[in-house]
Amino acid sequence: MDREEQVNEVINDKHLNYLKSVLIAQLLLEANDELKGSKAFRQNIKYQVGKTNKLLEQVYQQGFNTIYYNNPEMCTNVLNKIDNLIHKIKVASIDELVIIDALVDKYFENKDEINETQTAEFTKID
Asked: Which residue among 36, 39, 56, 87 has its CA within the 20 to 30 Å range from the CA of 113?
C-alpha cells in the first residue's frame, strides 16, 4: 500500500484500536532502544530485544503509516502524551502511584463530567 492509499483510507473503530496497539508498540520500541548500553542489557537480552523490535516494526509499520499519514499531528501528539504519562508513572513514588490510580478511577467514574470541564492541549506541528 503506497502513501496515497494510506492517506485516503478511512479511519474507523478498528483503526483506532489498532492505533492504541501501534502507539504502545512504538513506545516499547523507543523504550527498548534506551536500554542499550545499560548493565542489564546483556547479550541474551540484547538479542531478544532486537528480535522483538524487528518483529514489532514489521507487524505495525503499515498500520502506523496509515494512521500517521492520515493525521500526523494527532498521532505525534498522542505519542508524546502517552510517553509523558509513562514517564510520570515511571518516576512517581509508591504513594504517588496510589493517588494517581485513585485519580484515574475517579476519571472513569465521572468521565462525561470531567470531559466537559477539562481540556487537553496538543502542540501544533509545522
From this structure: 87
